[in-house]
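Hi L.,

As promised, MFS transporter:
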Amino acid sequence: MPNVARYMMVSATVLTSVDILTAYLPVLGSSVGIAPVMIGGMLAVRGVSSTLSRLAARRLARRFSQSALIVASVLGTALCLVAITVFPAPVSMFVALAVGGFFLGIGQPLTMTAVAVSLPAPARSSGLALRLLGNRVAQTATPLIAGAITAVFGIASVFIVQVLGLAVSAAWELGARRRSAADSGENQTG
């Protein structure tokens, strides 16, 4: 089903963004002279911010559509990665990770719900299992791809490639949203 594939892509790109940050932020920090303890603090801020967004999920879901939250999650994560790559200074990185962490925390639970809701009840468990499989495949492939990219193009390139994956996810979700709105308009006028 097209919706499931789209939500699997969003889920995989958000999840692997967390992995990329965890694995490559210390390398980026080291390359610009940021102490490991400071990088640990940045990752902790990201984790706390993700937790806070999950606590706010119910309020956010009442105020915004699922699609809008998914797009915000993906684009907020992408902006975080761009910010830490372009402005690798401790203060800007802490701010980017606090904001980006909030958006990272939204993506995973939303895509799980989106997969479950987009499938008929008998197919939900299989759909969620497929989503988890997609996440595991992405988590296996990402370190291999990231290592190859970093070896050729340098540390910042891995963040930029991840941003491209997030941008594709956002574009796919926005395209589906527009098609859905157009279909609704045709059904109301037809």
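The helical segments are 2-31, 36-55, 57-63, 66-86, 90-118, 124-153, 155-189.

Thanks again for sending the construct details.

K.
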